[in-house]
Design brief:
By secondary structure, the chain is of the alpha/beta class. It is built from 16 helices and twelve strands.
């Protein structure tokens, strides 16, 4: 089954392991096992070379300072969280054996080449911080690769610029705060091969900043597949996102929120991930396909709950049917009330006692 068909048939749920493996292959595999138990469709990791990602003096974000002990800067932090490239080959094979999709975010050109040529990944995630990284975007081939693009820390103008650069031609025009599709051929390719993720970049995101209405607006304005990468606490936001039409839901998870690391505190623990997946799957069942029809479960209730035409009073033979002598009552084993006007003022062919079902 292709990625396009997967997101068409159901909400695609990504268990974001990220760097919550704390640089340990064994912990990464434990997290994969827990993701499988939760019912997630995919796990996602982050491939990066620290030397290519940050300078040696890059400062920690405020949330990173709160969540990590004895680390002075991003370079030190990322070095401890970096897996070896051969570890990712191991993890890919492990996911294949366990039958769960294996996805990676890439943060530098070297990691991109490894992900594409060695891991041969069919789906690539571009994180919010890389949305304007033209050195990375220029390597992507939107015609051949399935891309998930996060939009944290971005405006509509930033997103349009990124999509246009990704396509190497102008697909959207953004003017007066309105988006116009100007290349329908490339737009159709984007619609098939790309998911645009609403995201707010903070860890955790406070409720007042989640801005989930963006999902409705992005669906309307971009007319692309829209997903949601969630950094809020708990399971409510992903469920709301699903109800708004998000095709992909991504959520960080960990074995223990008390672990030392930048993302553990804002992640779900396994039981919470399981509950999130179950809630989304239940939503899908409840939501249905939107086609108003007679459901199978209703058929046996039709005669019981609907009504038919019955004699309100004694109706003699050749007496005209009227609103005075006809009414509607259960069960619906006779004529539908909707046909009453067809027999109104017509003569009865027989005598009807009160409450007798009228049949013609």
């Amino acid at each position: 089954m292709t990625f396009s068909s997967k997101i068409k048939n159901k909400i695609y749920i990504i268990a974001e392991i990220g760097v919550n493996h704390n640089g340990k292959l064994s912990l990464a595999k434990q997290l994969i096992d827990e993701a499988i138990q939760s019912g997630a469709d995919a796990v996602k990791f982050q491939i990066f070379k620290t030397n290519n990602l940050v300078t040696k003096t890059a400062k920690l974000a405020l949330y990173q300072k709160k969540n990590i002990k004895n680390i002075k800067n991003q370079f030190q932090m990322l070095r401890k969280l970096e897996l070896k490239l051969k570890d990712f080959e191991n993890l890919k094979n492990y996911c294949k054996k366990k039958k769960i999709d294996f996805i990676n975010s890439v943060f530098d050109e070297e990691s991109f080449e490894f992900n594409k040529k060695i891991l041969k990944s069919k789906i690539i995630k571009i994180a919010s911080g890389e949305i304007d990284n033209i050195f990375l975007l220029r390597k992507l081939n939107i015609k051949k690769e399935k891309i998930i693009l996060s939009t944290g820390m971005s405006t509509y103008k930033d997103i349009v610029n990124s999509l246009n650069y990704l396509c190497k031609k102008k697909v959207f025009n953004f003017k007066n705060n309105k988006i116009k599709i100007i290349n329908k051929r490339l737009f159709q390719i984007l619609k098939k091969n790309l998911v645009l993720m609403h995201c707010v970049t903070d860890y955790p995101v406070k409720d007042e900043f989640a801005n989930l209405s963006c999902i409705d607006k992005m669906i309307k304005d971009f007319k692309l597949n829209i997903g949601y990468s969630d950094h809020t606490i708990g399971n409510i936001a992903p469920l709301i996102a699903a109800s708004k039409g998000a095709k992909v839901i991504e959520k960080h998870f960990t074995l223990n929120k008390k672990f030392n690391g930048p993302d553990h505190k804002s992640s779900l623990e396994p039981i919470e991930l399981l509950q999130m997946v179950k809630s989304i799957r239940k939503f899908e069942l409840l939501n249905g396909n939107g086609i108003k029809k007679l459901e199978k479960c209703e058929i046996s209730n039709i005669k019981i709950a609907k009504k038919s035409l019955v004699a309100k009073t004694l109706i003699n033979k050749n007496e005209k049917f009227s609103f005075d002598n006809v009414t509607v009552k259960r069960p619906a084993s006779g004529l539908s009330p909707l046909v009453f006007e067809k027999i109104l003022n017509k003569k009865s062919r027989k005598k009807y006692l009160p409450d007798e079902i009228i049949k013609i």
